[in-house]
């Protein structure tokens, strides 16, 4: 199977997350797979885009128009070459008849198992997180029968955080948010014994589907390719949860409930079945026949605390034999006759589903087993299953994270005592640097004033440099300095989750939606006060490293510290490693809303050294009011990891690096794409000309000035942030205008159609108070009245995009809508096409970008 899918080369050196995110020529095509080797990459790309059809493994055979069906010999010859068996014919050739041939569709579950077996831990985690957003059932136990071990995927699940509202209906107290590996819920397992005329997966989907809308959470026999035989996926255990929305008309159950599905027969997968009986509140066994062998296996479960239910199709089975064995099992498994359900073709499906739901609800209400995934993993270990988290690198990284987070009792006190260079010292230094920059551009400022500012800055930097990194920061530095790349990545993930766990009591307020979809405007910030509203995150530790580097660099530049005595010169190199492995790094500091220039340029210099000949860059940025879905848009488009949700989110601007495949870089005209997410920098309301607004406009100018391509995310058709209008005006004076795309995100209505050309013209031509005020503040009078005047906007050239609503249904059980995924792909294709055709500003190398950062 691995050979068929082209994955055999990834068994020693596993497929990585960075491999899957590379930009190639295929990134611009809405292509259909033609041979089995296309399937893994097609699945990964669709999953990255949250496409609800990612599991469809249908192949479109590329047959020439003049090909004739009678040419069997040539087809046979091609197949032999494909299998690489032309020179090695042996007894193994007979096994090929049992496997899919290159033109036979592959079962989607086989594809999933093969891909997970070929992926490293971090790509496995990404696959599972994206599957969760698509509301697909998730792999919990991954079978590998050929190597005789099965893996419980605890690490792969750690990245999933779900939210729900408990009943009574929505309110502040009913909102819950937690990692799926930590919260406890009753679990219900559905298994098959020998043959069953009833489909477990279809039944589970019906139980999980509210009303008449069928959800295909579990892949089943009636879906496309669902009847294709499974080759390697038998023994797979999948899990899915029902999570309540707080609406009684929609909620099937009033609390979270887990559902488990074993693929294959319990007789052939006894270890998995044994585990399910130890972690489930109840087990539903679907069968047509109870044989003597299965009877003995079930009899061995005597004394189990799990409740058992049988779902039979008696007309297809041996009725008398089934009754005889059932009567013997009833006292052994502590059942009664209500635990035996009969479903035949004439049974009303809706009433049968209601009966299953009532059983589940009854068991969940009564005292029953409730385990978290962590506790389930402990049970798996005792039975001899492998748990993916148990590798040494992962455990060492976890131990280091726990040593750091164990000391965080009070967030404010920890910031004050451990992150000493931030807060007041950094804010004062940033203000002095800003004034120093302003006087340098003011013509001929008094030399005395300039000297005073330099002296004050030097004093502040000397105060910062007088400190040593606190114990927690030193532990963090040791963690990111690990020579093991895997341990370094594990440590960062553990830190993200550990710090989020510490901050969780502060984050209990319910968001208006699950991901960042609706504006939650951050109020104006008082810059006379310390800015610590954001939860503690990895970025704060990196920010502290950046300040040590900034202070030391400032003293070296002033001749107050010999270059040979530097202690922190290697810090940019450590941070660069994290950027190259997919961690977003701050470009604009979220605490002071300023750019740590020496730190950022140090990072870019390290990047230039590392990339050597492949240093051509395109900078792509996303701007917009916090809460308009721009971070979700970037993540969906490129598979990135920008923070989403949680109110205003991180306030700084973050950057991530995407590699362009070498085979495509010449065509695209660049080797890498640097993506900048403006976070929560931009406010939505037009404020008076003051420090807050001036700062927003400056930051928007900086980000757009660095960019070749800018996506402006709008929540409403006229919701164009005034700071961004000012940035356009300022950049227009310089002649530097990025290629721009305005994205209007319809945050609620999935079915709404995109704006027609006439509506686009109205959007561009509609004069607004914002544009008039912006023009007046930039001393351009009434010359610029509309967006079309401002940005040379041609309404026929797709500068305005309409993105349908993200969700199909009501969260938390809603899946991402297919319309959203397809619209994001079209936008991505357009952006890459513009880059390739040179419609963006001239591409930069890293040296040019460093100079541009300095000037801006």
Characterization of this structure:
Helices cover 41% and strands 13% of the residues. The chain has a nine-stranded mixed β-sheet with strand order 10-9-8-5-7-6-1-2-11, sandwiched between helices. Strands 12, 13, 14, 15, 16, 17, 18 and 21 form an eight-stranded mixed β-sheet that branches. Strands 3-4 form a two-stranded antiparallel ribbon. α15 runs antiparallel to α16 (447-465), α21 (597-611) runs antiparallel to α30 and α22 crosses α29 (818-836). Residues 63-97, 507-532, 749-760 and 781-785 have low confidence and may be disordered.
Descriptors for this entry?
41% helix, elongated, 13% strand, P-loop_NTPase, coiled coil, 856 residues, G_VLIG_dom, GTP binding, single chain, URGCP, alpha/beta
Compact overview of the structure:
This is Up-regulator of cell proliferation. The protein has 30 helices and 21 strands.
* Strand residue percentage: 5-15%
Please tell me what the overall shape is: elongated
Helix proportion range:
40-55%
Strand order of the largest sheet: 10-9-8-5-7-6-1-2-11
Please give the radius of gyration in angstroms. 30 Å
Terminal CA distance reads: 54 Å
**Count of discrete alpha- or pi-helical segments spanning 4 or more residues:** 30
Would you tell me the overall average pLDDT?
82
Main β sheet profile = 9 strands, mixed
């Amino acid at each position: 199977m691995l050979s068929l899918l082209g994955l055999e080369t990834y068994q020693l050196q596993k497929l990585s997350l960075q491999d899957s995110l590379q930009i190639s020529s295929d990134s611009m095509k809405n292509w259909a797979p033609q041979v089995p080797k296309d399937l893994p990459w097609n699945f990964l790309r669709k999953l990255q885009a949250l496409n609800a059809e990612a599991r469809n493994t249908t192949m479109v055979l590329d047959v020439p128009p003049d090909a004739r069906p009678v040419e069997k010999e040539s087809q046979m010859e091609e197949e032999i070459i494909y299998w690489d068996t032309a020179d090695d014919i042996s007894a193994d050739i007979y096994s090929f008849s049992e496997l899919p041939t290159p033109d036979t569709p592959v079962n989607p579950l086989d594809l999933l198992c093969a891909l997970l077996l070929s992926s490293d831990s971090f790509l496995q985690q990404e696959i599972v997180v994206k599957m969760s957003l698509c509301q697909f059932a998730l792999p919990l136990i991954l079978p590998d029968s050929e190597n005789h071990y099965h893996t419980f995927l605890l690490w792969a699940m750690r990245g999933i955080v779900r939210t729900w509202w408990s009943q009574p209906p929505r309110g502040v107290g009913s909102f819950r948010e937690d990692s799926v590996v930590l919260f406890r819920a009753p679990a219900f397992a559905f298994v098959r014994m020998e043959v069953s005329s009833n489909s477990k997966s279809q039944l589970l989907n019906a139980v999980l589907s509210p009303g008449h809308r069928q959800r295909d959470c579990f892949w089943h026999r009636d879906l496309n390719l669902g009847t294709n035989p499974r080759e390697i996926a038998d023994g797979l255990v999948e899990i899915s949860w029902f999570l309540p929305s707080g609406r009684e008309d929609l909620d099937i159950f009033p609390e979270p409930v887990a559902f488990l599905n074993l693929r294959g027969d319990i007789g052939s997968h006894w270890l998995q079945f044994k585990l399910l009986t130890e972690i489930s509140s109840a087990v539903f066994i679907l069968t047509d026949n109870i044989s003597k062998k299965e009877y003995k296996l079930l009899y061995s479960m005597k004394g189990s605390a799990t409740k058992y239910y049988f779902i039979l199709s008696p007309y297809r089975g041996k009725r008398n034999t089934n009754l005889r064995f059932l009567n013997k099992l009833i006292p052994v498994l502590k059942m009664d006759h209500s635990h035996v359900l009969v479903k035949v073709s004439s049974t009303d499906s809706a009433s049968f589903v209601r009966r299953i739901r009532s059983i589940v609800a009854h068991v969940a209400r009564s005292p029953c087993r409730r385990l978290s995934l962590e506790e389930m993993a402990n049970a798996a270990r005792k039975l001899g299953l492998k748990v993916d988290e148990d590798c040494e690198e992962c455990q060492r990284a976890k131990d280091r994270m726990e040593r750091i987070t164990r000391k965080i009792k009070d967030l404010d006190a920890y910031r004050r005592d451990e992150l000493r260079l931030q807060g007041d010292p950094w804010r004062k230094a940033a203000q002095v640097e800003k004034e120093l920059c302003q006087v340098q551009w003011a013509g001929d400022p008094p030399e005395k004033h300039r000297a005073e500012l330099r002296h004050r800055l030097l004093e502040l930097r000397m105060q910062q440099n007088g400190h040593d990194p606190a114990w927690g920061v030193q532990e963090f530095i040791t963690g990111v300095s690990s020579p093991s790349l895997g341990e370094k990545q594990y440590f960062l993930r553990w830190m993200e989750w550990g710090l989020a766990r510490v901050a969780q009591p502060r984050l209990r307020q319910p968001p208006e939606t699950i991901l960042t979809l609706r504006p939650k405007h951050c109020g104006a910030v008082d810059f006379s006060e310390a800015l610590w509203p954001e939860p503690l995150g990895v970025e704060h530790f990196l920010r502290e490293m950046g300040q040590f580097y900034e202070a030391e660099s400032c003293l070296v530049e002033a001749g107050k510290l010999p270059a040979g005595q530097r202690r922190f010169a290697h810090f940019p190199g450590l941070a660069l490693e994290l950027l190259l492995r997919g961690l977003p790094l701050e470009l604009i500091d979220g605490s002071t809303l300023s750019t740590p220039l020496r730190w950022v340029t140090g990072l870019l210099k390290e990047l230039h050294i590392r990339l050597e000949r492949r240093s051509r860059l395109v900078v792509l940025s996303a701007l917009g009011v916090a809460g308009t879905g721009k971070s979700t848009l970037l993540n969906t488009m490129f598979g990135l990891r920008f923070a989403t949700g949680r109110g205003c989110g991180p306030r700084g601007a973050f950057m991530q690096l995407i590699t362009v495949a070498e085979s495509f870089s010449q065509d695209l005209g660049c080797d890498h794409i640097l993506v900048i997410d403006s976070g929560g920098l931009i406010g939505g309301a037009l404020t008076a000309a003051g420090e807050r607004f001036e700062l927003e406009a400056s930051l928007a100018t900086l980000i757009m000035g660095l960019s070749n391509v800018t996506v402006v995310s709008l929540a409403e058709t006229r919701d164009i942030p005034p700071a961004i209008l000012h940035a356009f005006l300022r950049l227009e004076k310089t002649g530097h205008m990025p290629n721009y795309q305005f994205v209007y995100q319809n945050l609620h209505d999935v079915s709404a159609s995109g704006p027609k050309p006439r509506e686009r013209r109205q959007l561009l031509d509609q004069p607004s108070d914002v544009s008039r005020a912006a023009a007046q503040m930039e001393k351009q009078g009434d010359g610029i009245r509309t967006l079309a005047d401002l940005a040379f906007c041609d309404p026929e050239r797709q500068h305005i995009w309409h993105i349908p609503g993200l969700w199909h249904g009501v969260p938390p059980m809603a899946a991402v809508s297919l319309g959203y995924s397809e619209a994001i792909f079209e936008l991505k294709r357009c952006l890459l096409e513009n880059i390739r055709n040179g419609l963006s500003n001239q591409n930069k190398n890293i040296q040019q970008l460093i100079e541009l950062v300095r000037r801006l």
